[in-house]
Amino acid sequence: MRLKLHVAVIGAGAFGGWTALHLLRRGARVTLLDAWGPGNSRASSGGETRVIRGTYGPNQPYTKMAVRARQLWQENEKLWHCQLFHPIGVLWLAAADDQFERGSLPMLREAGIRYAELSAQEIGQRWPQISLDGVQWGIHEPESGFLKTRASCQMVLEGFLREGGEYKQAAVVAQGLEDGKLKGLPLFGGSKLVADRYVFACGPWLSKLFPKTIGDFIRPTKQDVFFFGTPAGDDRFSERNLPVWADQRDRFMYGIPGNEGRGFKIADDTRGADFDPTTGERVVDAESLKAIRDYLGFRFPALKNAPLLESRVCQYENTPDDHFLVDRHPAAENIWLVGGGSGHGFKHGPALGEMVAELVMADKDPDALFRLARAKK
User: Fold this and answer.
1) Which residues, 6+ apart, have CB-to-CB distance to 226 below 8 Å?
2) Model-level pTM?
3) Which terminus has fewer CB within 10 Å in the chain: N or C?
4) Helix 62-80, helix 149-162: angle, nearest 10
5) What is the pLDDT of residues 4-45, one digit of tens each?
6) 154-158-161 Cα angle (round to 5)
7) Going edge to edge, which strands form the sheet with 90-94?
8) Assign residue 367 a region: left if phi > 0, alpha if psi is -120 to 50, beta otherwise?
């Protein structure tokens, strides 16, 4: 009897967890590992919420990938009897320089994503709590919204275990990973995990584990996120009365309203300073808080003096072109490297995991857009 292909997946975040689940569903024996657990506070897949949207600018694969991901999110919600995706809509505020938004429209149409082009007047009529200074028009995606982040990672793990997967909370030793075909995965404590293939989906730790191959091709950056309190009894800033929003007027600001009373989430998408995901102190910068407060009062006047309820530091793991990394290790054909979420990867987890599982199981070549070779161009 032919034995099942045994695949070890290292990292239980959005990329690793979904990859492990899809590998399992394709008939592999799968062992999933994570140093601190799915959705932990050090992970790029930690925190409470992430945006799921189709607006991505021109000439990219992510709009269509988001469609497939949304389908998979909803299919698995039904299977698991839970709600992880909240379709409260996404509103893009377009300024005079609107190449990104204009370039997104053909991609949205081609992918079959419902959207509406709204004038500034129409936006003001629907959402008068937004100050539209500098806004020319907007894109509203009524079927997009936000995802529950930490809960999603944990739910994927639970589903993976119910379907027969194996999970270990364990950390990998970096030594020897780049010395050719991997014959066994060394773990802290002296044990070793032996599998046929290894998928490393370690987010910001990929460059630490593979310094020769990846190095600074994946760069972790510090990203500050803030949650502000809304006025007592004022429902205008809840998920019932305001969509997820994005504004590229000067810097790319975005926010998620409500979410079970956690507060009005707002963050600056601009890449921050270099950050060590293991040892970095997760304290927001005073300058970041001031800039966010200034913007909040400008775009949402009723929140000008809103109290800060929570703040957190997460990280992006950026590639230079913001495209994902999906490829074999050049010196070890049984190692796959998956990462480079670059601040927009979480929503795509189900679709990316499906793609990676197919590549690993069939030993196919990944799309050139995602390969390591582009780092040398």
Assistant:
1) 265, 266, 267, 284, 289, 292, 308, 310, 311
2) 0.97
3) N
4) 60
5) 999 999 999 999 999 999 999 999 999 999 999 999 999 999
6) 135
7) 116-119, 137-141, 90-94, 244-247, 253-256, 264-268, 219-228, 308-318
8) beta
pLDDT at 361 over 70: yes
Residue 377: the pLDDT is 63
Please give the structure tokens belonging to residue 243.
């969509």
Question: What whole-number distance in Å separates Cα of residue 230 and Cα of residue 227?
Answer: 10
Angle CA(187)–CA(359)–CA(113) in degrees, nearest 5? Answer: 115
Here the tokens at position 210 are 């593979």
Cα–Cα distance for residue pair 349/207, rounded to 1 Å = 20
Please give the single-letter amino acid code of residue 110: E
Q: Which domains does the chain have, with CATH numbers?
A: 1-53+147-217+319-377 (3.50.50.60)
The per-residue pLDDT for range 137-164, each reduced to its tens digit, is 999 999 999 999 999 999 999 999 999 9
Rounded CA-CA distance 236/371 in Å is 45
Kindly report the backbone phi and psi dihedral angles of residue 296, in degrees, each rounded to the nearest multiple of 5, phi listed first.
-60, -45
